[in-house]
Amino acid sequence: MVHTCRNCKRTFSTELQYELHRDACWDDQLICTRCGERFAERGATEDGWHYRCPSDDCDADGIGEDLQPIADVLSVSR
Ligand SMILES: [Zn+2]
Ligand SMILES: [Zn+2]
Questions:
Q1: How many Å lie between the centroid of ligand 1 and the Cα of residue 8?
Q2: Least distant ligand from the CA of 24
Q3: How many domains does the chain have?
């Protein structure tokens, strides 16, 4: 079975490889606390300053406000 990283679309032949990669890969991921959407930090900004949720029907914005680093969220819920 092949595991595909939902963040960067790389594929891994074992679950262990995938999980190791996922932890590192998702370090720069943000999660929208309003709609639950997960996305890359670079995908949520155009000028590197203002961040907003990329979902069309969600107007959440602001890192540390509506958008939280996913690593923080995961470590809290762990
Ligand atoms: Zn990845
Ligand atoms: Zn959102």
A1: 4
A2: 1
A3: 1
